[in-house]
Amino acid sequence: MIEVKNLTKRYGDFVAVRDVSFNAAQGSILGFLGPNGAGKTTTMRIITGFMPATSGTVLVDGLDIFTQSLEARRRIGYLPESPPLYSDMRVAAYLRFVAKLRGMRRSEVDDAVERVLKICGLADMAQRICGQLSKGYRQRVGLAQAIIHNPPVLVLDEPTIGLDPRQIHEIRGLIHSLRGQHTIVLSTHILPEVSQICDRVVIINAGRVVLEESLGSLAAGKSLEDIFLEAISKEEGHEPAEDEETLEEVGAGHG
Amino acid sequence: MRNALTIAGKELSSYFVQPVAYVVLTVFVLLAGWFFFALLKQFTEMVQVYTAMSSAQALGHLNLNSRVIEPLLHNMSVVMVILVPAITMRAFAEEKRAGTYEFLLTAPIRTGEIVAGKFIAASVFILIMVALIWIFPIILMVFGDPEVGVMGAGYVALALLGVCFVAIGLFTSSLTQNQIIAAISCLGILLLLYVISWPLQAGGGMFGDLLRYLSLPEHFGQMVRGVIDTSDLVYFCTMIFVALFLTQRSVESARWR
Fold it and tell me: What's the ipTM?
């Protein structure tokens, strides 16, 4: 469903993404994993057509995101790193606006808004102003706008960042419930998230793919943390101790 | 086109849920009222003086169009130079800052539709501004006998001028994510177009002709006097088209960086 081939992105001399390739099969959830600054957001921005790659191609449902951009973009729902909300709009009005721009017919719009409000637990928030929502609700509205046109492909950039443990649990449950109908690419640096909801994991470090594996076939007995640390330290020759420290911080921060 | 209208509708309603629109409209109408009052006062005083001198010839030269409406519209055009950047500065700069730009550019719509939508919304806002100060011609029509056609031409000129400013404002907003920079650079361009012919006196050769052609008051002044010339219409339409084209390229360029 999503085929990423030899993607490279340079900013001047800096190479943000280097020769990245991976596939996501239809109906699967792919966890896109890596430390901060590894190139996750850049890769997702290229997949969604926000920016072009320096070289390489992305096919979404067989459509090239550069040459058949409009058609390809129609099939994608995208939640960027910060939810793209208009702070002066009410939630329902915002979702209606998004649905229309994503090409839904006028008659379908109201039903779609009802549906995502219910799915994302926003039914009571429909008339609230986006700018006054808490972080957790902003994230839910962000997710609602991504799925409103029922796209075959969902690209979610760190959907659980900055949420409290209960909200993280809810959002994960929500993503889990979307399995099957949608092909989902989800970036994160929270390891338990991947082992809980993903079918397949791609680990990226310093712009390179260092591991691509389905979760089931990962060596039994080894935790994802060990695998992650091994993969990224092999690549950079890091002191393992240093990485463990950062991981603990991450673990403490996000429960 | 449908997408452009969807964006225009959203933009327009977002003008009116924020205080900016009301502040701009209030300032615009308040200043217009003050200018109108001042000009009308001068006019009646002059009429009194000439009547006292019983100079029928001088009285014949006084008319509401050239003594009240024409200077009023010139003043309002300068007010627009200052207010329009405040209306358009958010257009793209705010989207970039808030992260909604990522949504707009990944939605299945063309960049031209985004630009068109924002242009339509801001232009409608300009039309509302200009329509509000049509109250003064109505007052004159009730108590006097001005030429309606000439006033109409002047108001069309003011609207066209405002729409032209909007196109330039959208362009500067598309270049930055900082609203202040967008507003100031727009103000700079508009003022420059206002004074661009100042170095010239009478002659000037090719360069002089070019500067005079670019000069806003040159074209605006003609129309306000009631002369709607094709060359002036072409001037305004060209400015609008060029500015919108540059805006579209500037938005599109985000995809190439």
Answer: 0.87
